[in-house]
């Protein structure tokens, strides 16, 4: 059965509400600009939360804009820099599903088309409103005959399109939920990467904090193997908010605790701690999901560093009490989680692999015994998988291998790599 993906634009494909941003551009020199900005934002939220009809909201917002074609050019440049992070990193999905992805928005084609077509989305698959201009290029209204300018417009449009197959809706607003409510789509995914509207999220089939999450649960190809929102970052002790902000921006699920408790450590993929709240070697024994520890201070216990290494857990600490560790530690942790970089770790061999385009990256951590690399490569050879880059570094305890391959693979390949004798941890990055 064919599948179609109906994606909203404002606060979904992009991080912002475009009409709100257009107002900030067009009213920049207006004496009452702050008051008008507030009116437009309130009208946007009332409509998105279902408290005001979309028709009335749109009409009143456009009347307040005082915008022209030059303002639209500035807006387009701005929006291109505001594409939602999880959408921008999954460009390959849009390229491979050009016929199935539709942008359906109550916004306007004049600014949507230049943004989304850079992501391989077909112009014929963009459904949105259109402005009406006067001879000087000023916006004086919009096409009121377009169903998307009306209340329930997305439902009306889908009835006209009469798509045959499974239809999934992704958006942040009430008009997106109406597609589910009408029975026009199979599932509605409330997209919360940029904003979470509780009145919408509570009615959704699934809350998706990122596009990665949507692709993951629907078993679709994606840029990263596992959504960050599913990885818990346990925080214990005095950790600066600025450091945590970097992890939140990456999408990690932050959890604060007063002390390290085994039940929470077992669930964590990342641990942030200070010098006085470090785990014991014994606590790491059952921390099967833990991949990295970021310690804001010095790891004093050499046994902890060795125990972590034995478990395939990398540690980054800041032995110099560097005042910039609020940036240093999260940057190193993110570099390891995203690309496998181990530089400046206190217990892993040093590796800074270059990022390879159009490749899949796999990490294999094993006991430092002879012959492991040959066994890894034998698996790839059995499945006719071409290696485009491979890096091996070792210390007294472990071998650390990063392999970049340029073809797809099935679950059997991953299972064989995990099953190699003396494997400690195996991870697919992207």
TrEMBL record:
<keyword id="KW-0378">Hydrolase</keyword>
<dbReference type="InterPro" id="IPR054480">
    <property type="entry name" value="AHAS_small-like_ACT"/>
</dbReference>
<comment type="pathway">
    <text>Amino-acid biosynthesis; L-serine biosynthesis; L-serine from 3-phospho-D-glycerate: step 3/3.</text>
</comment>
<dbReference type="GO" id="GO:0006564">
    <property type="term" value="P:L-serine biosynthetic process"/>
</dbReference>
<dbReference type="InterPro" id="IPR050582">
    <property type="entry name" value="HAD-like_SerB"/>
</dbReference>
<feature type="domain" description="ACT">
    <location>
        <begin position="361"/>
        <end position="430"/>
    </location>
</feature>
<dbReference type="GO" id="GO:0005737">
    <property type="term" value="C:cytoplasm"/>
</dbReference>
<keyword id="KW-0460">Magnesium</keyword>
<dbReference type="InterPro" id="IPR036412">
    <property type="entry name" value="HAD-like_sf"/>
</dbReference>
<dbReference type="Pfam" id="PF12710">
    <property type="entry name" value="HAD"/>
</dbReference>
<dbReference type="GO" id="GO:0036424">
    <property type="term" value="F:L-phosphoserine phosphatase activity"/>
</dbReference>
<dbReference type="InterPro" id="IPR002912">
    <property type="entry name" value="ACT_dom"/>
</dbReference>
<dbReference type="GO" id="GO:0000287">
    <property type="term" value="F:magnesium ion binding"/>
</dbReference>
<protein>
    <recommendedName>
        <fullName>phosphoserine phosphatase</fullName>
        <ecNumber>3.1.3.3</ecNumber>
    </recommendedName>
</protein>
<dbReference type="InterPro" id="IPR045865">
    <property type="entry name" value="ACT-like_dom_sf"/>
</dbReference>
<dbReference type="Pfam" id="PF22629">
    <property type="entry name" value="ACT_AHAS_ss"/>
</dbReference>
<keyword id="KW-0028">Amino-acid biosynthesis</keyword>
<dbReference type="InterPro" id="IPR023214">
    <property type="entry name" value="HAD_sf"/>
</dbReference>
<keyword id="KW-0479">Metal-binding</keyword>
<keyword id="KW-0718">Serine biosynthesis</keyword>
């Amino acid at each position: 059965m064919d599948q179609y993906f109906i994606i909203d634009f404002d606060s979904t494909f992009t991080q912002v509400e475009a009409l709100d941003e257009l107002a900030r551009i067009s009213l920049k020199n207006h004496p009452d600009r702050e008051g008008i900005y507030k009116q437009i934002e309130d009208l946007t939220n009332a409509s998105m939360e279902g408290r005001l009809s979309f028709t009335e909201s749109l009409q009143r917002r456009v009347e307040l804009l005082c915008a022209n074609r030059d303002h639209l050019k500035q807006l387009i440049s701005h929006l291109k820099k505001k594409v939602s992070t999880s959408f921008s990193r999954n460009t390959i999905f849009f390229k491979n599903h050009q016929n199935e992805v539709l942008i359906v928005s109550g916004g306007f084609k004049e600014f949507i088309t230049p943004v989304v077509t850079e992501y391989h989305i077909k112009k014929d698959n963009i459904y949105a409103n259109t402005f009406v201009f006067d001879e000087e290029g000023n916006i004086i209204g919009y096409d009121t005959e377009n169903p998307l300018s009306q209340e329930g417009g997305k439902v009306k449009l889908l009835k006209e399109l009469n798509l045959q197959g499974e239809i999934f809706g992704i958006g942040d607003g009430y008009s997106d939920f109406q597609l589910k409510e009408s029975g026009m789509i199979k599932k509605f995914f409330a997209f919360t990467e940029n904003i979470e509207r509780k009145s919408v999220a509570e009615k959704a089939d699934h809350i998706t904090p990122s596009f990665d999450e949507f692709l993951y649960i629907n078993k679709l190809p994606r840029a990263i193997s596992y959504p960050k929102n599913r990885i818990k970052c346990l925080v214990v002790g005095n950790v600066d908010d600025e450091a945590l902000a970097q992890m939140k921006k990456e999408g990690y699920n932050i959890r604060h605790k007063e002390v390290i408790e085994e039940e929470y450590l077992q669930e964590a993929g990342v641990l942030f701690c200070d010098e006085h709240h470090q785990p014991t070697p014994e606590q790491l024994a059952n921390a099967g999901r833990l991949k990295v520890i970021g310690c804001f201070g010095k790891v004093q216990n050499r046994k902890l560093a060795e125990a972590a290494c034995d478990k395939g857990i990398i540690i980054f600490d800041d032995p110099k009490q560097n005042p910039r560790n609020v940036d240093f530690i999260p940057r190193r942790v993110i570099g390891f989680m995203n690309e496998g970089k181990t530089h400046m770790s206190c217990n892993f061999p040093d590796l800074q692999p270059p990022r390879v385009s159009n490749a899949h990256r796999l990490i294999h951590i094993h006991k430092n015994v002879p012959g492991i690399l040959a066994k890894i490569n034998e698996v790839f050879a059995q499945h006719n998988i071409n290696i485009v880059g491979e890096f091996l570094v070792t210390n007294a305890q472990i071998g650390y291998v990063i392999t970049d391959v340029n073809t797809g693979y099935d679950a059997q390949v991953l299972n064989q790599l995990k099953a190699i004798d003396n494997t400690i941890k195996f991870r697919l990055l992207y």
